């Protein structure tokens, strides 16, 4: 990811909060988060603030995933290979899907659903409400296909 804190400020304006390590913006119905390391941008996340279907999307290798509309279950049918991770918390759970992409750098694209569902079957049917570009290793406690 070639962006830096200063290039993101040029694109999105001054962050609502942040330091030299991270920045947060709220733009329309989206929450944007950036995490920086010495080499530059390490993670960039986009999360929808409401659960209603939206026009916000991500295109991964020619396959379109809409926030608030597509689910992990419907996204699974769009990608041949992906890894899945389920984290259960006291105030909800998070289920992520990391499709294997043709991108040749060390960047992972993570689709995320967060909600009040405490099992994989239920949460996989909730709308995807965010995505991230990250250099972190793929979390896959629910396996890969």
From TrEMBL:
Name of the protein this chain belongs to: Uncharacterized protein
